User: Which sequence fits this backbone?
C-alpha cells in the first residue's frame, strides 16, 4: 500500500507554486522550526531515524552531528545530481514540489547553522532547474529566503547549480569538487566534508528526498514519523520502479514493504505470459536479486543488506524472462566504464577491462576463463578506491555472473544469447 | 611520538607521520607510484595498501596517519594479492614498449613488477590507444600510452613551479595528461616532471634516445650553474656526460633543480673543452707540457712582480673552489707580493636576483668563497681600478682565472678587448673561446679542470660549504688551479684541499635518503 507522506499533493498542479504550496500547509513547518532551538531539530531528526535517501543510507541526524561546534561558516548542499541508472524520484520531487525541498533545506540549514546552501542539480534536468529557480525567486520575494527569514534572526541564501553531466558528481566529494569549479572528481578522505568540504569549510551533503523528509519530521515529530517503516528503517521512501512491470513509476511506500507487493500489487505485476527473472532493488549498482530472492525480499536497508544487496537510491528495476542477463550486464558495464572519473587505477582500468571482456563475450568472442576473470577483476576493484564507483561497477558484475552463470557460460560456449538465440553482433 | 608496529618491527615516529613515511623511516619496502615526498598526497595509484589490525578494509599508507599502537603490515597474502592486482591494473593498458623506451632500466613499472608483480598477463582484449608523441613544450615529450596517470607532474606544476601548465583531460581510461591550448609546459623547472615521472611517459628532449641508462655511471656532485649549489648527480660513460639530475638535500634544493642547471654537463664534455696548454706568439701557436712551461712561467711572473708589483694583475672569477683561490693567492699575494687582484663579476646587474625557488642571478658557484678569500687578504681593488690601470698601460702581465662555464659569461668578448693592452695574457679556462689567442702579443692558454674532475669546496649563497669529489678525467692536460700553482712554484705547497679556517656553516654533501629500491634507483625519486 502506498503511504503518501511526501507525495500527498503531487498530483495538484498548483503545488509547484508558492501560493499553491501554502494552500496545503506549506512553510508553516518552517515557521514552527524557527521557533525551535536548532539543537532540538537535530535531536528530532536523530530520533526519527531518518537515513540518507541518496543511496548509502547513512543516518542523517548523525551526519549533522559530525559538524564541528565552532562558528566557522558552513554549507548545506543538496545532492540533486540524480544519476544512478533507474532512479528518477528526485526529479519528480523537484518538478512537482520544489517548495517542499526548499522548505526542508531552510529548516535543515537552520538546524546546522548554515548561511548558504546550493542545490546541485543534474545538468540534464532542464525542467527541474528551471522550476527550482522560479521557486527560489518566489521564496526570496516572500521573505522565506534572504535576510531575517520570517522575522527571525536567521538569514539564509540558496542557489541552484547545474551539473554538467557526470555521474561521478553525484558522489558527495565529486559534487563538491564540481561546485568548486574543479574537475568533478571525488576527493581523498579524510578529511571528510563535515570537517572540510566545500571551499574547505564544514559541509553537509544530503539528498533531495532526505531534505524534503525533514519537513514532516519537524511537523509531526519523530514519533509519528516512525509509525511508518521498520525499527531500523523508519519512514517512507520513494521507489522508482522501471522495467518490465505494467505500471512503472514513482511510488512512495513505507520502508519494509515486501518487494513482491510493490511489483505485483502497486505496479500491477508483469505483462501477461511473462515470468519474473530478476530484480535490481536499488539502482544499477545494487547486486541483482533472482526471482526467488525478490519474492521474499523486503524494502528496507537491513533486510536487503542481509540478502547481499542494498536499497540504494530506491530504483527498482524489474527484469522478466524475455531479457538476456549478459546483455544487461553489458549495458551496465559500459555505463560504469564511461563514467569512471579515472583517478584511481583499479577503477579506471578495471571498468574498461570489464567492459571489454563483456564486449568480447557479447560479440561471440568470449573465452570460458573470461567468466572467472570477470569475477576476479571485480573482486579486486572493490573497496580499493577513493569513492564507491569502483564498487558500484563491480557489484553488479559479481552478482550477475554468480546468479546467472549458466547464461554467461551458454553465451561463451555457443557464441549467442540463451534467451534471444543470437549474439549481439548478429542483431 | 606514536609507536606502531610495521611488519612486526617496532617503529617510533613523530606525530602526524603517515604510514608510508613510517615505512620509509623503518627501511621497509612499500609499493607506490603517485606518492612523492615533495608533493601533496593524491592517493590514486592505490598500490601502497596496508592492513591495519582492527580495520576491515585495506588502507592506503600515503593518506593514513600513524596512530599510537597501530599494528600494520603489508606482507600478508591479502595485501600482496592486492598489490599484484594493482600493478596488473596499471599494466593492462600499458604498451610494454620497453625495448624502445628511454625509461627502461629505471622504470617504476619494471622494477615494481619484478618486486611485487610477477604474474602472467590475462588481458586478451585490445589496449587503449593514445597518442605516443605529444610535444608538451620546449623540453619535454609525452607518451600518453605509457602514462599511468599518477598525477605527479600535474601536482609539480601546481605546487612547486606554480605554473599550472599541466592537467588531466578526459576521464576514465581515456584520461590523458595534457596542456591547455596555447600554454605549453614551459617553465624553468619543467624537467623535474621527467624525473618524478615513474614511467617513460615524460621524457626529456635533451636525453631521449641518446643513451641506455644501464650503461651510465653516476657521480654525486653539486651544480655549479648558480650560487644555490643544488646537489646533483651527473650521469656519464666513457663517451662523456649525458645528463644531470637532482639529489635530495633538504637544506638546499629539496628534491628539485632548475632546467638551466641540467645543461652543466655540456661544458664538461670533451668537445667543448680547451685541450692543450698552448702559447701563441705572433699568430703562431705551440703546444707545451705543463712541466716544461709552468716553472719557467712561474719564474717570469715572480720576477715581474718583484720588479714592479704594479705590472702584474690577477683576475679571478667566482667559478673555482675555495682551495684553488687559497693556493693561488698564497703564492702570488703572500709569497710574491702581488697587489693587483680583481674580481670579474660576470653579470653585475642581476647578481642579487632570485626567482623564489632555486634559481639565483649569481651564476657562479663560489662567489662567497672568493669574496671571503679576498677579504682575508684585504684585497679591495675594484674593476674600475683595473680598467684604469689597463688604460694607462701599467699592466704587462695579466693572469685570468676565467670562466669554467662559458654559457654564464656573456661579457667575455668585451673583457678580452679590455685585456688587450697587456703584453702577456695567461688565460685559464675550461672552455674554448674564439679569439683569445690573438688578444695580446703573447697568450698562454691553460685548460682547467671542471668541478666534475677535481676535489674542492664551494660556498653557496647561504654560506654553506659543500665538498665535491672528482668523477673521471675528461681532458688529460687540464689542471686545477692548485695544480697550476704547484707547477708555477714547486716549493709552494698551497692550501691543497685543506679545509678553510672559517666560521661558515659546513655541510657535507648529503647522501640521498635511503629510499626503497624504486626511489633509490630513480634519478631523483
Assistant:
Amino acid at each position: 500500500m502506498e503511504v503518501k507522506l511526501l507525495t500527498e499533493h503531487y498530483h495538484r498542479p498548483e503545488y509547484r507554486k508558492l501560493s499553491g504550496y501554502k494552500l496545503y500547509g506549506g512553510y508553516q513547518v518552517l515557521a514552527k522550526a524557527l521557533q525551535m532551538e536548532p539543537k532540538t531539530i537535530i535531536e528530532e531528526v536523530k530520533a526519527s531515524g531518518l537515513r540518507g535517501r541518496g543511496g548509502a543510507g547513512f543516518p542523517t541526524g548523525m551526519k549533522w552531528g559530525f559538524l564541528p561546534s565552532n562558528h566557522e561558516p558552513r554549507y548545506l548542499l543538496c545532492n540533486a545530481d540524480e544519476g544512478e541508472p533507474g532512479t528518477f524520484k528526485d526529479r519528480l520531487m523537484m518538478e512537482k514540489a520544489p517548495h517542499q525541498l526548499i522548505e526542508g533545506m531552510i529548516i535543515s540549514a537552520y538546524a546546522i547553522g548554515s548561511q548558504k546552501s546550493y542545490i546541485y542539480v543534474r545538468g540534464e534536468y532542464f525542467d527541474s532547474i528551471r522550476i527550482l529557480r522560479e521557486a527560489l525567486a518566489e521564496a526570496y520575494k516572500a521573505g522565506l529566503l534572504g535576510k531575517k527569514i520570517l522575522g527571525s534572526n536567521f538569514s539564509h541564501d540558496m542557489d541552484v547549480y547545474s551539473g554538467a553531466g557526470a555521474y561521478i558528481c553525484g558522489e558527495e566529494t565529486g559534487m563538491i569538487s564540481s561546485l568548486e569549479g574543479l574537475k568533478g572528481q571525488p576527493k581523498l578522505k579524510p578529511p571528510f566534508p563535515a570537517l572540510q568540504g566545500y571551499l574547505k569549510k564544514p559541509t553537509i551533503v544530503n539528498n533531495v528526498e532526505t531534505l524534503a523528509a525533514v519537513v514532516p519530521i519537524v511537523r509531526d515529530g519523530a514519533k509519528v514519523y516512525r509509525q511508518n517503516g521498520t525499527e531500523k528503517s523508519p519512514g517512507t521512501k520513494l521507489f522508482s520502479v522501471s522495467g518490465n512491470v505494467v505500471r512503472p513509476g514513482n511510488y512512495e511506500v513505507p520502508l519494509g514493504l515486501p518487494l513482491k507487493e510493490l511489483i505485483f500489487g502497486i505496479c500491477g505485476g508483469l505483462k501477461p505470459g511473462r515470468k519474473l527473472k530478476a530484480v535490481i532493488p536499488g539502482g544499477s549498482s545494487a547486486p541483482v536479486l533472482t526471482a526467488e530472492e525478490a519474492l521474499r525480499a523486503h524494502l528496507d536497508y537491513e533486510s536487503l543488506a542481509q540478502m547481499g544487496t542494498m536499497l540504494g537510491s530506491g530504483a527498482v528495476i524489474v527484469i522478466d524472462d524475455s531479457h538476456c542477463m549478459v546483455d544487461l550486464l553489458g549495458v551496465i558495464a559500459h555505463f560504469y566504464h564511461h563514467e569512471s572519473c579515472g583517478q584511481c587505477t583499479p577503477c579506471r582500468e578495471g571498468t574498461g577491462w570489464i567492459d571489454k571482456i563483456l564486449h568480447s563475450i557479447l560479440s561471440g568472442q568470449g573465452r570460458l576463463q573470461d567468466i572467472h576473470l570477470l569475477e576476479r577483476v571485480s573482486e579486486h576493484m572493490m573497496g580499493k578506491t577513493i569513492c564507491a564507483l569502483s564498487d558500484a561497477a563491480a557489484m553488479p558484475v559479481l552478482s550477475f555472473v554468480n546468479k546467472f552463470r549458466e547464461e554467461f557460460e551458454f553465451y561463451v560456449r555457443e557464441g549467442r544469447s540463451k534467451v534471444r538465440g543470437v549474439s549481439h553482433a548478429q542483431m | 611520538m606514536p609507536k606502531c608496529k610495521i611488519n612486526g618491527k617496532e617503529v617510533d615516529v613523530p606525530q602526524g607521520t603517515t604510514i608510508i613515511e613510517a615505512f620509509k623511516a623503518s627501511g621497509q619496502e612499500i609499493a607506490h607510484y603517485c606518492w612523492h615526498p615533495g608533493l601533496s598526497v593524491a592517493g590514486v595509484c592505490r598500490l601502497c595498501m596496508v592492513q591495519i589490525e582492527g580495520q576491515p578494509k585495506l588502507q592506503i599508507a600515503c593518506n593514513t596517519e600513524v596512530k599510537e599502537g597501530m599494528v600494520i603490515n603489508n606482507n600478508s597474502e591479502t595485501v600482496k594479492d592486492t598489490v599484484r592486482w594493482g600493478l596488473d591494473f596499471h599494466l593492462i593498458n600499458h604498451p610494454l614498449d620497453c625495448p624502445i623506451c628511454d625509461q627502461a632500466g629505471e622504470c617504476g613499472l619494471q622494477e615494481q613488477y619484478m618486486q611485487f608483480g610477477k604474474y602472467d598477463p590475462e588481458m586478451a582484449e585490445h589496449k587503449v590507444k593514445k597518442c605516443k608523441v605529444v610535444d608538451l613544450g620546449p623540453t619535454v615529450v609525452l607518451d600518453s600510452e605509457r602514462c599511468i596517470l599518477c598525477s605527479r607532474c600535474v601536482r609539480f606544476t601546481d605546487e612547486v613551479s606554480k605554473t599550472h601548465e599541466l592537467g588531466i583531460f578526459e576521464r576514465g581510461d581515456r584520461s590523458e595528461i595534457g596542456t591547455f591550448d596555447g600554454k605549453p609546459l614551459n617553465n624553468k623547472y619543467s624537467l623535474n616532471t621527467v624525473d618524478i615521472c615513474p614511467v617513460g611517459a615524460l621524457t626529456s628532449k635533451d636525453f631521449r634516445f641518446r643513451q641506455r641508462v644501464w650503461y651510465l655511471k653516476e657521480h654525486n656532485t653539486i651544480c655549479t650553474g648558480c650560487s644555490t649549489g643544488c646537489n646533483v648527480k651527473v650521469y656519464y660513460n666513457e663517451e662523456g656526460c649525458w645528463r644531470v639530475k637532482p639529489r635530495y638535500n633538504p637544506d638546499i634544493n629539496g628534491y628539485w633543480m632548475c632546467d638551466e642547471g641540467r645543461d652543466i654537463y655540456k661544458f664538461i664534455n670533451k668537445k667543448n673543452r680547451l685541450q692543450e696548454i698552448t702559447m701563441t706568439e705572433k699568430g703562431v701557436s705551440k703546444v707545451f707540457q705543463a712541466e716544461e712551461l709552468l716553472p719557467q712561467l712561474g719564474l717570469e711572473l715572480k720576477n715581474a712582480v718583484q720588479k714592479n708589483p704594479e705590472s702584474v694583475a690577477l683576475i679571478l672569477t667566482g667559478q673555482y673552489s675555495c682551495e684553488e683561490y687559497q693556493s693561488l693567492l698564497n703564492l702570488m699575494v703572500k709569497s710574491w707580493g702581488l697587489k693587483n687582484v680583481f674580481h670579474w663579476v660576470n653579470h653585475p646587474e642581476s647578481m642579487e636576483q632570485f626567482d623564489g625557488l632555486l634559481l639565483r642571478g649569481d651564476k657562479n658557484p663560489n662567489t662567497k668563497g672568493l669574496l671571503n678569500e679576498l677579504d682575508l687578504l684585504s684585497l679591495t681593488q675594484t674593476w674600475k681600478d683595473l680598467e684604469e690601470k689597463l688604460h694607462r698601460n701599467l699592466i704587462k702581465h695579466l693572469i685570468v682565472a676565467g670562466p669554467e662555464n662559458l654559457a654564464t659569461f656573456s661579457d667575455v668578448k668585451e673583457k678580452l678587448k679590455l685585456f688587450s693592452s697587456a703584453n702577456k695574457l695567461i688565460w685559464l679556462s675550461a672552455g674554448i673561446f674564439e679569439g683569445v689567442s690573438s688578444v695580446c702579443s703573447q697568450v698562454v692558454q691553460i685548460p682547467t679542470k671542471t668541478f666534475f674532475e677535481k676535489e674542492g669546496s664551494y660556498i653557496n649563497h647561504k654560506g654553506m660549504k659543500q665538498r665535491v669529489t672528482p668523477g673521471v678525467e675528461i681532458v688529460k692536460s687540464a689542471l686545477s688551479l692548485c695544480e697550476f700553482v704547484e707547477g708555477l712554484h714547486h716549493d709552494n705547497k698551497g692550501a691543497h684541499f685543506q679545509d678553510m679556517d672559517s666560521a661558515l656553516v659546513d655541510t657535507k654533501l648529503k647522501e640521498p635518503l635511503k629510499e626503497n629500491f624504486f626511489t633509490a634507483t630513480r634519478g631523483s625519486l
In short: Chain A touches chain B through 33 residues (CB under 8 Å). DSSP finds 18 helices and eleven strands in chain A.
